Amino acid sequence: xxxxxxxxxxxxxxxxxxxxxxxxxxxxxxxxxxxxxxxxxxxxxxxxxxxxxxxxxxxxxxxxxxxxxxxxxxxxxxxxxxxxxxxxxxxxxxxxxxxxxxxxxxxxxxxxxxxxxxxxxxxxxxxxxxxxxxxxxxxxxxxxxxxxxxxxxxxxxxxxxxxxxxxxxxxxxxxxxxxxxxxxxxxxxxxxxxxxxxxxxxxxxxxxxxxxxxxxxxxxxxxxxxxxxxxxxxxxxxxxxxxxxxxxxxxxxxxxxxxxxxxxxxxxxxxxxxxxxxxxxxxxxxxxxxxxxxxxxxxxxxxxxxxxxxxxxxxxxxxxxxxxxxxxxxxxxxxxxxxxxxxxxxxxxxxxxxxxxxxxxxxxxxxx
Amino acid sequence: xxxxxxxxxxxxxxxxxxxxxxxxxxxxxxxxxxxxxxxxxxxxxxxxxxxxxxxxxxxxxxxxxxxxxxxxxxxxxxxxxxxxxxxxxxxxxxxxxxxxxxxxxxxxxxxxxxxxxxxxxxxxxxxxxxxxxxxxxxxxxxxxxxxxxxxxxxxxxxxxxxxxxxxxxxxxxxxxxxxxxxxxxxxxxxxxxxxxxxxxxxxxxxxxxxxxxxxxxxxxxxxxxxxxxxxxxxxxxxxxxxxxxxxxxxxxxxxxxxxxxxxxxxxxxxxxxxxxxxxxxxxxxxxxxxxxxxxxxxxxxxxxxxxxxxxxxxxxxxxxxxxxxxxxxxxxxxxxxxxxxxxxxxxxxxxxxxxxxxxxxxxxxxxx
Lengths: 368, 368
Description:
Chains A, B: This is Nitronate monooxygenase. The structure is a homodimer. Chain A has 14 helices and eleven strands. Chain A is an alpha/beta fold. In chain A, the strands form two sheets. The first copy, chain A, has an eight-stranded parallel beta barrel, surrounded by six helices. Chain A has a three-stranded antiparallel β-sheet with strand order 7-11-10, covered by helices on one side. In chain A, α2 (22-30) runs parallel beside α3 and α10 packs across α14 (343-364).
């Protein structure tokens, strides 16, 4: 499974994996793919440094990447969380309280802070993460929302670090290309997390044509070897998988109940909802997303207010594993995630399945 | 592009095309694919007979199919249109009137009837269409909504006619298989017309596994050779294309303005709306769909009431080519429909593009 891009990066398989778990990223890189660690959850540079130390020590010199979030955060940058907090309407705060009360969600113990902070979404934090990243032999810097600033792209290029950005439309992809990005991740409607409305089947060739000759990675709905073959047939130079790793043995969701929910979910059990961050993001459908998507409710606030509003609530739901409300970003491929396996076992399955799909397409084309 | 199914049908390409236009169906069959004529618009058996006579005379003995609609129509069957009309709330009638007035849509001339009738959606009509169909060497009977009744499947089987049914989920596909259907068309979210929420990338392998060893056709988002390769890599035994034919020279949309709108539309210019029939169907996004999807409006009625309610309005919009309201069912692939070409030219492009995609995947797999 070799493309120009995989050769450039020196990896055996053009198989990129986004994950918040260093152990998953390391295992994927060791298995011949390319692990990309999501940095959004790191609120302190020291925590990131600690995990990059570990990752670097466990990838045996093979390449890995880092995904930072730099949204158009200028609007909220330079003002503190307290000032942003003040923008949240009382009606929305009451709705959070009422929804938690309805499901008997306990308070956090005294002194235990909510795990999630808006700070990870702010440019100043993303920049401090970048400063850390450049101390490590990171080979790819990905950006989940928007194009990275020009100086970041230039800094990466000077150090031989490739930059990638996610796009849900050809228009966004062209904007990334104009900004000087090296790789566009074409992320379809069926993907987990922030997505647009164009499905992977339509989006990948459209973006590949729009930004040619830049390499494109296919993302969304990919969790088997045949789906990898499909993504590559669509013109991608690799595939970008996120959801599939959530049920690997190396992942640490901090909740057995959530893992069980993922293993039991079908492809129809996700929803594209603004409940999590204020922008449409695909996730498990739960009583929590239903409440925010209810036309009779107050509806989600825009980013970044929604994320700030629900941060503590999500911590409580997860800590106490409150079943009806417990969810996570995940794509429609969740329907095929039916057992817990090691990253290596998953990669073996993917590469075997890819070869079988190629056999099949060659038989159909009369070349077998 | 040969699969077990295409060999069974004796066609050079496993390329199925759904179309309401006999000229398109005939041209596709002549070009080596398999034309499937949509019968929903025929309100009289004689009209259908006339077009099947023509189709039969223009396919040179090569195989073609017919698509009838047999929804769970028992609920409204046996009662007349007048009784169904009476179920439509006055508020909804007023909303139609107001929306048309807002856009200055003229009345139909005296004596000119609305083209669309609910009757095409009723089982008694579908059955009279089937009686006609069995007088012709139709090789495939497809059913767009639900499974055909057991006696229809048995009658088809007795005559060596294959049956196919569309499915938007593995559950629906299994229901079709249990009913004794021969082929399942896995139609993804990005498709034109009635669709579910699961994207083609995820849906095709899920359904192929659910109904194996029944053959599955991939539908939704397919309009190029690379998308055909992707659909086949996902485990389909053929592809089912509908939207792509709308801008062929053989299609007759009765509106140049609509053709121009299709040629100009991007992949993001469709919406999955209940405005047309009461069930979610992907179509061009227009001021008409916006009005029905507006949370402050009355919202669409359930099938079959919505179709009956809006039939005359749609005839008026189309007759007078009222630009902001003018639409049609079409999939996200509309973004790649940028020129008018003959069906033969389209098929040539598809087969060439397929071969190139196979070359590409073989290079990636190290087999070239």
